[in-house]
Design a protein that fits this description.
Blueprint (H helix, E strand, L loop, with lengths): L1 H8 L7 H19 L5 H5 L3 H25 L3 H14 L1 H11 L6 H28 L4 H11 L3 H11 L2 H15 L1 H18 L16 H15 L4 H23 L4 H6 L3 H24 L1
Helix pairs in contact: 1-13, 2-6, 2-12, 2-13, 4-5, 4-15, 5-6, 5-7, 5-15, 6-7, 6-11, 7-8, 7-9, 7-15, 8-9, 8-10, 8-15, 9-10
Subcellular location: Cell membrane
Protein name: Membrane protein
Family: Belongs to the UPF0324 family.
C-alpha cells in the first residue's frame, strides 16, 4: 500500500526507478527462496491425507475455475492466469512467480501489477469476513482457521485472521496456508513446460532454436532446497530467525516495488471485468475450501 501511495503522489524521484524495478523482480525471487524456511514437511504431512486432498482441490479447482471464468468474462489470458495463480496459491509471490515464467520480458507488466493490486484488495477484505462468517456457518475456531489457511491469498493475511481467532487456530491456519504455498513449485513447473512446448511448436524465427525457459525456475529450486533444509536439518533458532527476518524484509521491499507500479488511473482503466473475476475467484476458492473443511471436520 505504501508503494501505491508513493507512486500516485509523485514523491518518488525518477532516479529511484532502477532500484524499484530491482526490488520488484530480484528481491521478490530471493524472498520466495527464504519463504521455504517456513515450511516443515512433517507439519504439513501431519494435517492428514484428507486435508491435504482438500488443499490440492482448492489449488487445482481455483486455478482451473478462475481460468474458465476468465474466458467467460473475456479477461485477457495473461491477467486471468496471474489472478488464478495469486488467488489459488499464495498471493503476490505466486503472481510474480507465474509472471517470471510466462512473461520474462515484461511485455505484460501491467497485468502483473493489476493482479498484485487485486490480491491485496480482496485478501484484505477477507481478513474481517472469515472470522465473522466462520461461527455463522457453524465452524469451530480451529475449523475457521483451516478455512482461512485454505482460502485467503497472502500468508500475512492468514496470520492476521489466525491472530483474531487465537489459540490453535493460528497454527492450523498457517500450516494449511504453507501447504498451499508448497504447491507453487509444481504449478510453476507445469506452466514452464507449457511455455516450452508452445515455443518449440511455434518458434519466433522458423529454423532457429527457440529460447526456452527452464523447466523449474531457479528461484523455485532455491525455495525447494530451503524446504528440504528446514525439514531434515536441525537449524539453530538464530538461523531460523534470521531467515524469517530476511524473508520479511525482502518480500516487503518487493511488495513496495510492485506497489510502485500500480497507477490508480491505469487500474481504473482496466475496467470492471478483472475486478469481477477477482471477486468470483475469491468466492470460488473460499467455497471449495469451506466444503473441504466441512467434509474433513
Amino acid at each position: 500500500m505504501l508503494g501505491v501511495v508513493a507512486a500516485n503522489t509523485g514523491v518518488l524521484p525518477a532516479a529511484a526507478a532502477p532500484g524499484i524495478q530491482f526490488s520488484a523482480k530480484k528481491l521478490l525471487r530471493v524472498g520466495i527462496v527464504f519463504l521455504g524456511l517456513q515450511l516443515v514437511l512433517g507439519d504439513i504431512v501431519a494435517l492428514g491425507a484428507p486435508m491435504l486432498g482438500v488443499i490440492v482441490c482448492v489449488v487445482a479447482g481455483g486455478l482451473l475455475g478462475t481460468l474458465a471464468l476468465g474466458r467467460l468474462l473475456r479477461v485477457p489470458k495473461q491477467l486471468a492466469l496471474l489472478i488464478a495463480c495469486g488467488f489459488s496459491i499464495c498471493g503476490a509471490a505466486a503472481v510474480a512467480g507465474a509472471a517470471g515464467v510466462t512473461d520474462p520480458d515484461d511485455e505484460h507488466e501491467e497485468a502483473t501489477v493489476t493482479a498484485v493490486a487485486l490480491v491485496v484488495i480482496f485478501g484484505t477484505l477477507m481478513i474481517p469476513l472469515v472470522p465473522l462468517l466462520g461461527p455463522v456457518l457453524g465452524l469451530s475456531p480451529d475449523e475457521t482457521g483451516m478455512w482461512a489457511g485454505a482460502s485467503i491469498h497472502e500468508i500475512a493475511q492468514v496470520v492476521a485472521v489466525g491472530g483474531i481467532l487465537g489459540g490453535t487456530a493460528l497454527t492450523l491456519a498457517v500450516i494449511v496456508k504453507l501447504a498451499r504455498v508448497l504447491l507453487l513449485a509444481p504449478v510453476m513447473a507445469v506452466l514452464s513446460l507449457r511455455i516450452r512446448r508452445a515455443a518449440a511448436a511455434n518458434p519466433a524465427h522458423p529454423g532457429s532454436q527457440p529460447k526456452l525457459p527452464p523447466i523449474v525456475p531457479g528461484f523455485i529450486l532455491g525455495f525447494l532446497a530451503m524446504v528440504l533444509l528446514r525439514s531434515f536439518v536441525p537449524l539453530p533458532d538464530a538461523v531460523l530467525a534470521t531467515g524469517q527476518l530476511l524473508q520479511t524484509v525482502l518480500l516487503a521491499a518487493a511488495m513496495f516495488g510492485l506497489g510502485c507500479g500500480v497507477k490508480i488511473r491505469s487500474l481504473l482503466r482496466v475496467g470492471g471485468r478483472p475486478f469481477a473475476l477477482a471477486a468470483l475467484s475469491t468466492v470460488l476458492v473460499a467455497g471449495i475450501a469451506f466444503a473441504g473443511v466441512l467434509l474433513v471436520g
